[in-house]
Design a protein that fits this description.
The complex is a heterodimer of chains A (418) and B (123).
Chain A: E1 3-11, H1 15-26, E2 32-35, E3 51-53, E4 62-63, H2 64-77, E5 81-83, E6 87-91, E7 96-101, E8 105-116, E9 120-122, E10 138-140, H3 141-149, E11 158-162, H4 166-177, E12 181-187, H5 196-203, E13 210-212, E14 214-220, E15 227-232, E16 245-248, E17 251-254, E18 258-260, H6 263-267, E19 292-294, H7 305-323, E20 333-338, E21 342-346, E22 349-351, E23 358-365, E24 369-378, E25 381-391, E26 397-402, E27 410-417
Helix pairs in contact in A: 1-2, 1-7, 3-4, 4-5
Chain B: E1 2-6, E2 15-21, E3 24-29, H1 34-45, E4 48-49, E5 52-58, E6 64-69, E7 73-74, H2 78-87, E8 89-91, E9 99-101, E10 111-113
Parallel strand pairs in B: 5-8
Antiparallel strand pairs in B: 1-2, 2-3, 4-7, 5-6, 6-10, 9-10
Classes of the chains: A alpha/beta (418), B alpha+beta (123).
């Protein structure tokens, strides 16, 4: 079998992979190979036809396709090599990447460094265990988005959406514009899953009711969905008897979370964080396997594509530094521990010996918190503290902590309400 | 009068309190930048949105092409624009930024393509 030695191999050509490839080339890395299983570059952006992308990176408001095109043009202008229709079958800890595609057949790339940029998949109905029949008309929000925006088909006439993730909210508006009736968006949590701006411009603009603390408790219909029963839930998310309500609909969209696609990473021995379901990384976005980096939604689910691209650029910079023999990862490791009120942090480790004066710690809160202080605590001493008016689980935030004050083996990140 | 609103001009989503009389904005609090102020005034006087959708394609490698309004339009015109978008058809190949519908709602906003699309290989 052919084994090809390559310097930097990037897996996935969505926003993270594209941004990483462009940055690596800009930083002087000549040998960059981008692998994509779809038949085109751009990933999920191609079906995200709504606006709101690019405000940070391009300083203007773009749609998903426009955002993707800007990167795709750079890829071709810079002559970055990519392979489409190429499925990565496995990666091992020595950075051998086994791939298959119709032209090359089976091929192994031995990489100097790998950037994982495979993104997420949607949580399916099976993961929810909703009782009832199994008719057609139940789609994940992203599947419905592909039907409408790429294949030009409507999923049905009347819809209920379970989950208030951003894709579900965007699809509530999209289906309404296409003439469908969206009867309700049900969210099991007491707070919305998506960005507030999407609640405003996708639901409130079209008078679509958002039912918080509600879930679908029964699916009706034999061949095609005929309706759903929704119920209010208690504080433990259990349906409350007597609150059932029947809603007639032929379409149910599920927008109930994204799962990073880390099967390949795990095979290579990359350790995952149970909270993010992505790799455990240090401040350089390097995973537990030497020379394998992760960025974008495969690392943790982001709210904004701009942040995905910025993170990918950092991963590319780290990989290029390593390939040029300038890696700064030390042996002494400090664990970043999510404390009170904080659901997770990225990175989860800080390697000492970093030349950075400050390190950005991204985090999400576990619930809605008002007027809080987010503290970084080392050996009982607060080394950094920042006020936040409001923290919501749907919106990622960050703090910048000073490296020189990091002492001991761990730093606790906690959110304390006043 | 007083209204609480969330700015949608960027993903930060500033929570603002807007004091107004009729369509005259007296005071805006909670915004972090000038976009918030502009949004608050727009929301009170004439709420506007960018509309994105798809238009049917003839002879393209895909059956639809994504489009947007070239600028934000009055919210009450969204469905008028959508009616025109649903009736429209465009021939492949299509370039990004290509004019698809000229000023369909009579408010100075065109509908333009947001993606390039090549012709289908077998016509």
């Amino acid at each position: 079998m052919i084994i090809e030695e390559r310097s930097l191999v990037i897996i996935g050509a969505g926003p993270a992979g594209l941004a990483a490839a462009v940055k690596a080339k800009k930083k002087g890395m000549e040998d960059v190979l981008l692998l994509e299983r779809d038949n085109q570059l751009g990933g999920i952006l191609k079906q995200c036809i709504h606006n709101g992308f690019g405000l940070h990176i391009f300083k203007e408001e773009l749609t998903g396709p426009e955002f993707a095109l800007r990167y795709i043009r750079k890829i071709s202008e810079m002559g970055i090599e990519y392979k489409l229709d190429t499925m990565v079958i496995s990666i091992d800890e020595n950075k051998n990447i086994t791939t298959v595609n119709p032209q090359d057949g089976l091929r192994i790339y031995k990489a100097g460094a790998i950037i994982l940029a495979m993104g997420c998949r949607e949580r399916p109905r099976g993961a929810l265990r909703i009782p009832g029949t199994n008719p057609s008309g139940i789609f994940s929000a992203g599947t419905a988005q592909r039907f409408v925006n790429i294949e030009g088909m409507k999923p049905g006439k009347t819809a209920v959406i379970l989950g208030s993730g951003d894709i579900g909210l965007i699809m509530a508006r999209r289906m309404t514009l296409e003439g469908m009736k969206v009867k309700a968006v049900c969210e099991i949590m007491p707070h919305p899953g998506g960005l507030t701006r999407n609640i405003v411009q996708c639901l409130e603009d079209f008078d679509i009711p958002l039912k918080l603390s509600h879930t679908v408790t029964q699916i009706h219909g034999r061949t095609r969905l005929e309706g759903v029963t929704i119920s209010r839930v208690d504080e433990n998310y259990r349906p409350i008897e007597g609150t059932e309500q029947y809603i007639k609909c032929d379409t149910l969209l599920l927008s109930v979370g994204l799962i990073p696609e880390n099967e390949l990473a795990e095979e290579a021995g990359v350790l995952l964080d149970p909270a993010t379901k992505g790799a455990l990384v240090n401040q350089n976005l390097e995973t537990s396997v030497d020379g394998i980096y992760a960025c974008g939604n495969v690392l943790h689910v982001h709210d904004l594509v701009d942040y995905v691209a910025l993170e990918a650029e950092r991963a590319a910079e780290s990989a290029v530094r390593r390939l040029k023999g300038k890696s700064e990862s030390g042996t002494k490791r400090i664990s970043v521990i999510p404390g009170n009120g904080v659901r997770y942090t990225v990175p989860q480790f800080i390697d000492k010996g970093s030349k950075d004066e400050k390190i950005k710690i991204y985090f999400r809160s576990g619930s809605i918190l008002k007027s809080v202080r987010v503290n970084a605590v080392c050996k009982g001493k607060t080394i950094y503290s920042k006020k936040f008016k409001r923290l919501v689980p749907a919106e990622m935030e960050y703090i910048k902590i000073p490296t020189e004050d990091l002492k001991g083996s761990k730093v606790l990140i906690e959110a304390v309400e006043k | 009068m007083k209204r609480e609103m969330v700015c949608i001009r960027c993903p930060k989503g500033c929570r603002m309190t807007v004091e107004y009389e009729g369509t005259k904005v007296l005071n805006v609090r909670g915004n972090s930048c000038s976009k918030g102020l502009a949004y608050a005034i727009d929301e009170i006087t004439k709420p506007v949105r960018i509309v994105t959708s798809t238009v049917r394609v003839i002879g393209g490698e895909l059956p639809v092409v994504p489009v947007k309004t070239s600028k934000a339009i009055r919210r009450n015109l969204i469905f008028d624009v959508m009616e025109k978008i649903k009736e429209a058809e465009v021939k492949a190949p299509i370039k990004e930024g290509q004019l698809i519908l000229e000023d369909p709602a009579g408010c100075g906003a065109d509908v333009i393509a947001t993606l390039e699309l090549v012709e289908a290989e077998n016509g």
